Structures
1.
Amino acid sequence: MEYRTVGRTGVKVSPLVLGTMSFGAEADEAASREMYRAARERGINFFDTADVYSGGVSEEWLGKFSAAERDDVVIASKAFYPVGADVNAQGLSRRHLIQAVEGSLMRLGTDRIDFYFVHAFDEETPIEETLRALDDLQRSGKILYPAVSNWAAWQIATALGISARESLSRFELVEPMYSLVKRQAEVEILPLAQAENLGVISYSPLGGGLLTGKYRAGARPEQGRLVENARYGDRYSRESDVATAERFAAFADDAGASTVTLAVAWAMGQPGVTAPIVAGRNPGQLEASLAALDFGMSPEMRARITALSATPAPATDRAEVLTGKWS
């Protein structure tokens, strides 16, 4: 396996990350352990979790599964969303981040978290407050690198500027949503990451299940996030998304390839993406995603798949800046 370096950290990771949101939710402990082992057997060394996944069970199980090989794996966790009834058991304040890290360390059974994500943007806490807390956590060795998920490019850029000005540890890894039906990250987040040498692990390469080939005209599966989770259903409810998914499924049929494998391989080959996050409800479901590690996608095939969805509008309203056609 050809490992990739996360930005400027020097840390080498597999080209796929195993996401553990299903651990303790759709997947019981036995299935979760089997998925962990399947990932390790394929050379995956990067695992993504969060304090809110299954009420902390995901962290507990990941810590248990990786205990005997902790120094050989890279673990990322996150904080922001409510983890209790108390009004302060959420957000990105110094108070909550310190408590959240301590809780995650205990559940993971480890002395450090390799990449620690702020899970969303906190409009009530100054960015400086959050960055100073992360800097202190890094200096204490409890986290090794701060990271950021679900922030807009301008918010990330603002944080990088503050970190540089105040000599604080900066974000080294970004986690945006990215798939053939959600390509907004191409506009500013991925270019920012490339310009600032940030690592990128993207989530939902299957578009919440929309790109699995199960969602076609007049057909919907009985199970799946788009059916069972209203948030995911709303996220991928646009007619254009469904149309893209149908074109993609037809392309995969013609190519004689798995839609899941193709979708993951496409995201894995995007310039600027260090590694997409893959997951599954069970080992069998995960296997098609892991198969992307061995799938050789040619530049021509990648271009044909990319053309199946609309290219997002550029960040500037002067499109000629990108096309070179000045007027």
Note: The chain has 13 helices and ten strands.
2.
Amino acid sequence: MTDWKTLREELPEDVRARLDAKRQERRLGKALAEVRKAMQATQQEVAARAGMTQNTVSKIESADDVLLSSIVRYMHSIGGGVELVLKTPDGNARRVDFDPEIYVKRTA
């Protein structure tokens, strides 16, 4: 069985560039930034509400791999939530709603 990395290397450069562009469009961090901007919130505001630094928010928005707990805290800070859809090969799906109480630090 050939892995994806090997197959990708065999593709023409223009095809790899198009795949990279598509990957950038689908990146989770980019989607989070778009949601934040639509809510008219700054990175600094998200950071303060989520108990993170502005630098951490920036890293989340530019990352390919983000902790689920960070996503929940991020979305909760702008009044949103997170629901994950688990899909099995046979077409079944199960939705998991994440309770921010587990992930969001409370200050007293």
Note: The two ends are 55 Å apart (CA to CA).
3.
Amino acid sequence: MSRDLIPRKNTEMPTAENKGDMKTEPQKETTVEFLASLAGLLVNVFFFFTFVAQTFAIPSGSMEKTLLVGDHLLVNRESFAPATRWVGRLLPYHEARRGDPVVFMSPEQPGHILVKRVVGIAGDRIHLRDGIVYRNGEKLDEPYTQHILGNDGSYPTMYRDNFPSVPPSLMAGVPNRRWRQEMPKHLQGEDIVVPPDHIFAMGDNRDNSYDCRYFGFIPQENLIGQPLFTYWSFETDEYGENMSWSNQLARAAQMVFHIFDKTRWERTLKLIR
């Protein structure tokens, strides 16, 4: 075979001029590609805040000292969701557990969202004596609670602190007629027994919390999720959901103008336990 037919290797070293020719400039992202990336990001954010997480602001002091008025929470909506076949064990589904803070739809006011702490699950026997909770006969150690108003011996405070031994009534601060009629059906001795597929929850601020003592058990299907952490906390007064437009605008303006001096920076990314 003739040597001329054998391909020869190029042994010439590239010159500086050749090296410059070999460089390729990075491709710039086109407008269409940028918009496609932005759309993908927005879809992921929308999916996350629609199906996985939700934000929630604390409007009252019923969960102090764990949660303060003006705390803004990120809530895991998947915590109590029923497990699906296609997800399997990828997400940590579980039923509400004793001691969990939970966000839920009020069984008394449709559309009203509340946050409380689980005290009892299905089958638990609950009663309070002088503000102390007993579950299944055992006194609970609850370092996260606070008692600031005290018991003045009036009928409302006796009902609040010695539930359910004091009968519910309007005088006791129980406006829910359904609960006044239903509560005696769940009594066994000095305890109230949590029915299947329900939980019993109370606020950590035990002296100033409108909770299951006043509106009854919470159905499992009312649970929205479990709060994870406080992503922002702003010093503000208690407020209700039915604020007028003028009050809402005034509150929004206060947040804008005082975002730096009234933000509780020490509570940023604070885990909720």
Note: Residues 31-52 form the longest helix (22 residues).
